[in-house]
Amino acid sequence: MSYACSTFDFMVKSATAPTVVSLFSGAGGLDIGLERAGWHVVTATDFASHAMETLRASQAAKIQIEDQDMAHLEGTKLIEANVLDLTAADLRPDGARKNWSPDLLVGGPPCQPWSSAGLQRGLADPRGQLIAHFLRMIGELKPKFVIFENVRGLVTARGEHGVPGEVLLSIQRDLEDLGYASRISTLNAADYGAAQRRVRLLLIATAKHSLPDFPQPTHSREPGTNLLPWRSLADLLRELPAPSPDDIVRPKGLRADALRALMPGTGLRTQGKVMANRPSGQWGYRQDAFVADLSLPSRTIRAAGTPDWVRLPDDVDLRRLTWRECAALQGFPAEWQFKGTASQRFQQIGNAVQTDVAKAVGLAVKASLNRGAAATSPASPPWPDELTRRVHYTKAEERVNGHLRVRTRAVREELAASA
After folding, report:
1. Which of 108, 266, 274, 298 has the fewest CB atoms within 10 Å around its CB?
2. For domain 2-222+351-418, which architecture applies?
3. At 254, is the pLDDT very low, low, confident or very high (cuts 50, 70, 90)?
4. Strand, helix or coil at 326?
């Protein structure tokens, strides 16, 4: 376990900004958005050494927070450690009272156990069990608010009884046992000004304050609304400096001609999977072989060194989005000091919380905090209809194709184990 903290008077700063303890911080996307919303991250921790190198270097760079006279991670206590080994005492700022509690505890435990891009082993994956330690920290620190972020796949994740939606319901019940009501939703980063279509699950919880609504979208794909139009990938790329030649990757090998023949917004198809209700096969696009439509926000930035291909008007050939461009799509400041190999940088960027969404949610939670404690204890509202429908669809689809999916998953696990 290692610590890093700049010389800073914690008590002075915490008196002017609400405080945050950040778990599973990664490269700091969630923390950046919250600090832009006026929060002060007093402690941030992660197990990945390259992510912590990024946070330490970015802290040392004293990168200005948008529209504020302070720097990101100014005075933040940075802890490189496994959450299994941490206690509330480790996370409290130096000099704080023994019973000190943050205004907000945030985190996004690793999403791979629930992600459609992985094996979706859920609680069978040791990383899926880190949610229990996130809940443990809530019980130990007793924050006024909690923000939990994860992939949309967690909505239908199965628990010990194999029922879709069981994991998320269990998290909410565990929060209720700790005295916290919670509200859940899925938010698309493009609806909040990002040039990226990135849908993620968000949960807000509180014990004594009013449970805030999720922020209303500021942007829309639909014309004729009072909202701003979605921000396109082309819009963002025009604002960025030309990429370094060292970062440019061109297509080569057997797929090069096939990639160059693709229309924007399409990709090379995966092999179809025959299912009971899809006799012609269920297919999709290869994650590493898709040509972006520049007129739309980008697709979701993934934690892999194979982002989408782009063909810019002044370029004669395709190239992949660079890691710096992916960082910009995630909303990181241009000066953010990513460390590690190119692969590790892509991983940090793809695993991060998109900062525009983080800021919007942070503003909503801060408004509830500023209103003070509620007269009555909050209650958890029902799930939004969209999430309930998703669970019902998953149950129905499981009855039809579940046996085929089990077989496919077994094959994938065997291949992964032998690799």
Report:
1. 274
2. 3-Layer(aba) Sandwich (3.40)
3. confident
4. helix
The end-to-end CA distance of the chain, in Å, is 31
Token readout for 182 is: 């919670």
Between CA 48 and CA 337 the distance in angstroms is 15
Residue-range domain boundaries for the chain: 2-222+351-418, 229-332
Which are the contacts of 24, defined by CB distance < 8 A and separation ≥ 6?
45, 46, 83, 107, 108, 109, 110, 130, 134
**CA 176 and chain centroid, separation:** 24
User: What residue type is 413 in one-letter code?
Assistant: E
Angle between the 49-61 and 342-351 helix axes, to the nearest 10 degrees? 80
CB 361 within 8 A of CB 213: no
- 104 CB neighbour count, 10 Å cutoff: 25
Residue-level pLDDT at 160: 82
Say what the pTM is. 0.89
Nearest 10 degrees: Cα torsion 222, 228, 234, 238: 170
Identify the band that residue 307 occupies on the pLDDT scale cut at 50, 70 and 90: very high
Q: Nearest CA to 368 among 144, 147, 212, 202?
A: 212
* Residue type present at position 338: F
Give the pLDDT of residue 15.
57
| DSSP H or E segment with residue 57 | helix 49-61
Reading the block at residue 230, the tokens are 């979605």
